[in-house]
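Lab manual, section 2.4: Encoding a predicted structure.

Procedure: take the sequence of the chain (195 residues), apply the prediction step described in section 2.3, and record the output as C-alpha cells. A sample record is shown.
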Amino acid sequence: MDLYEIGEWLAVAFTRGYVVLAIFQSVLCWFAGLFGAGLTLVVFLHAKLYGATALQVVYMALMVYGWHQWRRGGEGGGELAVAWAPGRWRLGLFSAGAAFALGLGLFLKHGTDAALPLWDAGTTSFSLVAQFMTTRKWLESWLLWIAVDLVYTGMLVSQGLSVMAGLYVAYLILAVAGFVKWRRSMGAVPSPEAS
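Recorded output:
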C-alpha cells in the first residue's frame, strides 16, 4: 500500500465520520470534516481532478463556517434548527451553481489536463452549494448530496479510485439516511413556497 492509498483510507474514515456526525447534528462533524477535506485534497490532486481538489480548500473554510453557524447561527445567537431553505435562496443557489459549473468547466477543459473537466466542474460547483446548505441546516442539502454522490461515484470509478468510489456509494446511502433523520427532526414544519 503506497502513501496515496493510505491517504485515501484516512480520508474515507474522517469524511464518513463527518457525514455520520452531521446526520446526528453533532457539531463535532465539522472537525472530522476538516481533517477529511485536507486528506482528500491530497488524493484528488494526485489524480489530477483539479476541480475536486480546489473544492477541498473551500470545504475546509466551510467546515469552520459551519461549526460557527451550528453553534451560534440560530435565533438569538443559539444553535441552528433544521429548516427548509427559503424559496428565494433555492433559485439563487441553483443559478450560482450552474454558472460556476459552466465557467469552471470551460477553464478546466481548455486550461488544464483535467481528466473529466465538465463532470468535475459540475460536481464541484453543486457540492459547494450542498455544503453551504448543510452549514445552514437546510433539509434540501441532503437531496443535492444524493445527486452529487451519484455522479462522483461514476467519475471516481472511471479514474480507478475504487476506495474513494466506495466512499461515495456510502455517502449516497448516508445522504438518504440524513434526509430522513433531519426531516423527522423537523416535525410538522411545512415546506416554504418556492417563490
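Check your result against the sample. The CA atoms of residues 82 and 137 lie 5 Å apart.
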